[in-house]
Amino acid sequence: MNSILRIKPLGPARLAALPIADMNVFGIQKVLGVPLPSTILGILGVVNSIVLNEGDVEKDSLLGIGILTELLSKNAPPLKTIIEGPIINTAFSITNPCLTIPILTKEGTVLVKIENEVIKTISNELIVPRSALVGKAIQRLEIGVALRDSLEGNWNKVVAPGYTFRRGFIHYVRMNGKAMEFEFIYKLNIHHNVINTLVRLGGEGRQARLVITDKVPNVLLKYLNYITSPLEANSGLYIVLNYWPLIPTSPNTLYLERDKVIGLEFFEDPSEDIIGIPQIVRRNKEYRRPRKEVIRIGLGFSEVLKRRRPQILALPPGTLVYIRYTFDELRDELPSTYIKLLMAGYSSLFKLKT
């Protein structure tokens, strides 16, 4: 780790995981509380004044993610993940943080406080104690419209046909519903100058404060050392911090079959090694088995080509996985496109147990 990257949204964030479902007012978006790694890479590209060539982006199977990953990591060790995370700080101070990890539940994304006892409970009992909950993501839906100029006598702004839709914003609140300060914290594994500035985060002109620094408090460093990537992870139990990509090789794939889905190579038996999302329970309550879930996400929007990238499947934040094989053992099995996603920061992991 060279430094850390901190992003503090200014107001509700626009962090859609899925593109608009359709073009009318009833169109919906599924909103998760964790930014796509491609969103964070885009921010790094902007602050580094990187301009992508339209032709190069068109040739990139990831429509810009692959080429941006190459440009950002050109001075880093080969096959190194650029960003890893996030963990989420819900305190006002970085020197005395309240560190949490995001977990996707049936009710939405919740924040679980990271501390030794909680890590031990998740590792041994595969549950999350309700007492460890700090906050949750609240979604606010609004009507979104796209406007265009119209020349009918005077200049007028009118709604573009087919561009009225619902859009979702999220903000985190404490479990009692009160507003909460929060920031996303990532390990940054490339050399970068210290920076403190405002950036755009996601769509709709939302803004955030970006801080990159090599001064990391010990209390934060302790838990950052638990964060890793499948490119470097040893065998053991981990919890997924963002999105673990799953790409079926056949349209007829119905389940997580190791030889039919790219992304399952790290597991011996996916039905066993993908443990699922730990259930949140009160102490001394009946054990509840982790819940397996696969979600559909978009890979973001290409600003260069002005179109959306492909959609893929993924294991959501909070999924427990037991890695059996290391990247060095699998290097020849993984396609270069998938490796680029790992280098971009997808599949970041928090280590629980060896």
How are the SSEs placed, and which strands pair?
Layout: E1 3-9, H1 37-47, H2 54-59, H3 65-72, E2 83-89, E3 99-105, E4 108-113, H4 116-125, E5 127-129, E6 133-152, E7 154-174, E8 183-188, E9 195-200, E10 207-213, H5 218-224, E11 227-228, E12 236-240, E13 244-248, E14 261-262, H6 270-273, E15 274-276, E16 279-281, E17 295-298, E18 301-302, E19 307-308, E20 311-315, E21 320-323, H7 327-330, H8 336-344, E22 349-353
Parallel strand pairs: 5-16
Antiparallel strand pairs: 1-8, 1-10, 2-3, 2-8, 3-4, 4-6, 6-7, 9-10, 11-22, 12-21, 12-22, 13-14, 13-20, 15-21, 17-20, 18-19
Helix pairs in contact: 1-3, 3-8
Percent helix: 10-25%
Strands in their spatial order, largest beta sheet:
7-6-4-3-2-8-1-10-9
Shape: globular
Tell me the radius of gyration.
Answer: 20 Å
Report the average pLDDT across residues. 87
- Beta-strand portion reads 35-45%
End-to-end distance: 21 Å
Q: Count the beta strands.
A: 22
Low-confidence stretches: 19-28
Descriptive notes:
The radius of gyration is 20 Å and the shape is globular. The protein has helices at residues 37-47, 54-59, 65-72, 116-125, 218-224, 270-273, 327-330, 336-344, and strands at residues 3-9, 83-89, 99-105, 108-113, 127-129, 133-152, 154-174, 183-188, 195-200, 207-213, 227-228, 236-240, 244-248, 261-262, 274-276, 279-281, 295-298, 301-302, 307-308, 311-315, 320-323, 349-353. Helix 1 (37-47) packs across helix 3 (65-72) and helix 3 crosses helix 8. It contains 8 helices and 22 strands. It has one domain (3-353).
